[in-house]
Amino acid sequence: MKRLWYPVAEPVADGAVDDWSFAVHRRPSLRAARPRSARADGDPGKGLLTLVMLAGLALIVIGFRGAPLVPLYQPLPHVGYLNNLLMLLALVLFGASVLKGVLWTRIRHPQFLATILWATAHLLVNGDLASVLLFGSLGLWSLGSILLINAREGRWSPPPPGPLRRDLALLGIAVTLYGAITSTHIWLGHNPFLGSFG
Question: Which residue numbers delimit the NnrU domain (predicted)?
Fold first, then answer.
């Protein structure tokens, strides 16, 4: 079995994801505990959090690349086509809350849902232990985050929609990014358009 690692925009390493998730979700409650001097000039906590996330991402990449290949299951033939579709949808969803057109008013957690699709897409074509731990943990983390936020915040009131042209721009950007990502895969020796990764 060959591990198909997508090096572009990939988050994991075992403890790093948990630390990153903890930092992100605890930050609102820690804000009140910061001294006033820390809030006087901008928001230094954002810079620190960014450094922590980058360090976690580095640990994820190092840990995943160094993990032994332990097969757990054999991906189905031709499932790569579904992987490609899910990846394109994930890019669209992830950008929906950034451009704020019409789509982001229909989905409460577009970026978490994008992460779930991204993780599922990679589990379809990677059946080794490291991939299951990496992508499975990120998918479950996103699902758990959705459930916790929904329970904490209650009923969701959709935001007012933006202009439809933003969604059209989002689609164009997503397709462009998808092309760049797949081109990188091909340059690294893996063609995601072959369809059969099993």
Answer: 23-189
Residue 4 belongs to some domain of the structure: no
Residues of the domain holding 70: 14-187
pTM score of the predicted model: 0.70
Nearest to 61 by CA among 13, 130, 15: 13
Chain segment 8-56, per-residue pLDDT in tens: 344 443 444 444 444 444 444 444 444 444 444 456 677 788 888 888 8
How far is it, in rounded angstroms, from Cα 178 to Cα 88?
A: 6
Residue 177 lies inside a defined structural domain of this protein: yes
Q: In total, how many domains does the chain have?
A: 1
pLDDT in tens, 81-111: 888 899 999 999 999 988 888 888 899 999 9
| Tokens coding 146 | 């959705």
Give me 76's structure tokens.
Answer: 């189905």
Is there a domain that residue 93 lies in?
yes
- In angstroms, the CA 108 to CA 156 distance is 7
Tokens encoding 75: 């991906």
